[in-house]
Amino acid sequence: MAASPSRLRSLYRSILRELPQRPLSTPSPIQQRIRGNFATSGGNAARQVEEGEQYVQFVQAQRMYATLLERYNPGIGSTMDEGERVRLTARRVGMNFPEEWTLGRKT
Predict the structure, then answer these.
(1) Which residues contact 56 (CB under 8 A, 6 or more apart)?
(2) In angstroms, what is the C-alpha Rg of the chain?
(3) DSSP symbol at 103
(4) Residue 11: is it exposed, middle or buried by C-beta count within 10 angstroms (0-12/13-18/19+)?
(5) Among 22, 75, 81, 91, which residue has the fewest nearby CB atoms (within 10 Å)?
(6) 3-class SS at 106?
(7) Do residues 78 and 72 make contact, with C-beta atoms less than 8 angstroms apart?
(8) Is 20 helix (H, G, I), strand (E, B) or coil?
(9) Closest by CA position to 86, among listed 95, 77, 78
């Protein structure tokens, strides 16, 4: 079964959407390689379409994983001081720290 040109175009665009944005005038080497692979799809186009779909699903899952990791473990990838890390850990289990007062002012 040959892949339709519209399906290949859709898959190509899906792959490019998952890559970091760059101007069309200066495509990255990986964009050039992907374009070359799509331009010279030989007799195994159905296999290439399946691999492309799997690649898109994998990259989307990796992006979602990174988003969830940052959302639920905010101190993992950033440089956060100990007080902020403790405050966020307390919030994660449903507790809030009381507001601190110094010399009659909130800090």
Answers:
(1) 11, 14, 15, 18
(2) 23
(3) T
(4) buried
(5) 81
(6) strand
(7) no
(8) coil
(9) 95
Q: Cα separation of 71 and 88, whole Å?
A: 11
How far apart are alpha carbons 70 and 77 in whole angstroms? 7
CB atoms under 10 Å from CB of 30, counted, come to 13
SS3 content of the chain, % helix, strand, coil (to 5): 60, 5, 35
Tell me how far apart the alpha carbons of residues 38 and 45 are, in angstroms, rounded to a whole number. Answer: 9
Tokens of 42: 């030989």
Residue 37 has pLDDT above 70, yes or no: yes
Q: Which two tokens stand for residue 43?
A: 């007799």
In this prediction, residue 69 carries a pLDDT of 84
Q: Alpha-carbon distance 97 to 38, whole Å?
A: 55
pLDDT at position 61 is 93
